[in-house]
Design a protein that fits this description.
Blueprint: E1 2-8, H1 11-23, E2 27-33, H2 45-53, E3 66-72, H3 81-95, E4 102-107, E5 114-120, H4 134-149, H5 156-161, H6 176-190, H7 196-204, E6 208-217, E7 220-230, E8 236-242, H8 243-246, H9 252-268, H10 271-284, H11 291-300, E9 303-309, E10 315-322, E11 327-330, H12 331-334, H13 340-362, E12 366-368, E13 373-375, H14 382-403
Antiparallel strand pairs: 1-3, 2-4, 3-5, 4-5, 6-7, 7-8, 9-10, 10-11, 12-13
Helix pairs in contact: 1-2, 3-4
Length: 404
């Protein structure tokens, strides 16, 4: 089951979207919490909005006070209305919205029946409902509900397909400008990064390269950005595009604003601590002894890592891209133990140990006949070993002749 969470400021818009499905006989109201029905048992948008507003005190500071969630079971899961209602209630309870007013709608406009839930993000005192790690907690809740109700687990590929931004630009398919624009706009609006370098790292995994352009126009300083597509090796393909041709939302000023907003988001939501814990857990696993295994395990957890290495293979930079929290962080931001130098020491020493172990297995052993043991104290080739055994045997024969 996949849960998608959206927040906004239009309660009427969220309710009218769902009520429209009901009016078209393509949906129905399954359950309500703290919402009063009229005498005829029907629901009117204006009355519903009024019910919600009774729980919203005046002067609240939360700008986006509306949460709109969709729960999407696997098409193979044939669930009754009662089961969908129970799942929605348990989901809201576990997410922290059990005491909030909310409405659960079932949508039947497509073969894959699913539910939508509309609620508010502040309680009756005006305090914001805890939304820290909301997306991560939501994933955990859906997995628990899948096990409890025997649902088909949401495949990883399917989850990624729900994110329109997670598509690499493909130069061979053409319409490059349109591909770059769509991908970059989606990434800028949904991911958080604190520097232009981190922004570049994010785009690079989608085959997009970006560069800052600085200069002067009529004596005034000018800052701009150009975007290019690359192949899977990071090599540029085709001509670059000015950000102005893609839209203001991906221009220099917009990226700077996003960086400022990201600084506040990452600090307020304690994102770093979550990422540190995941990385530390993976590194503590004795099986994670190589860069490839480390990268593979992170990817399994929904995290990409980019190592920047020089011609000699030395690591001089590392960036983590957490698709769960949608944040990009250089390793140095997480602490010294997650810096490029730390990873260089860790994995280079592991590599040396593996080489030493391999060499020790390749050392020929000398057989000491008098002790009946193999010894590696001195290295002998097979030919030398054979000569040693032959000379000992020859001395034994001479002793026998003397006795005779």
């Amino acid at each position: 089951m996949i849960a998608k969470i959206n927040v906004g400021n239009s309660l009427y818009g969220a309710l009218s979207y769902n009520q429209e499905k009901v009016n078209e006989k393509k949906g129905k109201v399954l359950y309500t919490n703290k919402i009063i029905e009229n005498t005829e048992g029907n629901f009117n948008i204006h009355d519903c909005v009024e019910c919600f507003n009774r729980h919203i005190p005046e002067g609240i500071r939360t700008k986006k006070n509306v949460i709109h969630i969709s729960l999407n079971p696997d098409p193979r899961d044939n669930l009754s209305n009662e089961q969908l209602s129970m799942i929605a209630q348990e989901y809201m309870e576990k997410l922290g919205y059990g005491n909030q007013p909310y409405m659960v709608f079932k949508h039947e406009d497509i073969d894959r029946h699913h539910v939508h839930i509309v609620s508010i993000r502040t309680d009756e005192t005006g305090k914001k409902i805890n939304d820290r790690f909301e997306y991560i907690r939501s994933q955990k809740i859906t997995r628990e509900l899948e096990q409890k109700y025997g649902l088909h687990p949401a495949a990883e590929k399917k989850q990624k397909s729900e994110r329109p931004e997670l598509h690499r630009v493909n130069y061979k398919t053409g319409d490059i400008k349109h591909q770059i624009a769509n991908t970059v706009k989606a990434l800028v609006s949904s991911y958080h990064f604190q520097s232009f370098m981190e922004y570049k790292a994010l785009l690079s995994i989608y085959n997009i390269q970006t560069e800052e352009v600085k200069g002067e126009i009529n004596g005034k300083p000018y800052n701009g950005i150009v975007y290019s597509t690359t192949n899977d090796k990071g090599e540029k393909q085709g001509n670059p595009f000015k950000s102005s041709s893609l839209g203001k939302s991906v221009g220099y000023a917009a990226i700077q604003r996003r960086i400022e907003k990201s600084n506040k988001f990452i600090k307020s939501d304690n994102i770093k601590e979550h990422l540190r814990n995941v990385i530390s857990e993976i590194l503590s696993n004795t099986r994670t002894r190589t860069l490839k295994k480390f990268e593979k395990e992170l990817k399994r957890r929904g995290i990409d890592v980019l190592f920047r290495q020089n011609d000699n293979g030395r690591i001089y930079g590392v960036t983590f891209i957490d698709h769960n929290t949608r944040t990009v962080l250089n390793g140095s931001r997480l602490g010294k133990e997650f810096s490029a130098n730390s990873f260089q020491k860790r994995f280079s020493s592991n590599q040396l140990k593996q080489q030493e172990n391999k060499l020790s297995l390749d050392i020929p052993m000398k057989f000491d006949i008098t002790a009946g043991l193999f010894s590696s104290s001195s290295v002998h080739s097979p030919e030398t070993l054979g000569n040693d055994i032959y000379s000992v045997d020859q001395r034994r024969r001479r002793r026998k002749k003397r006795k005779l």
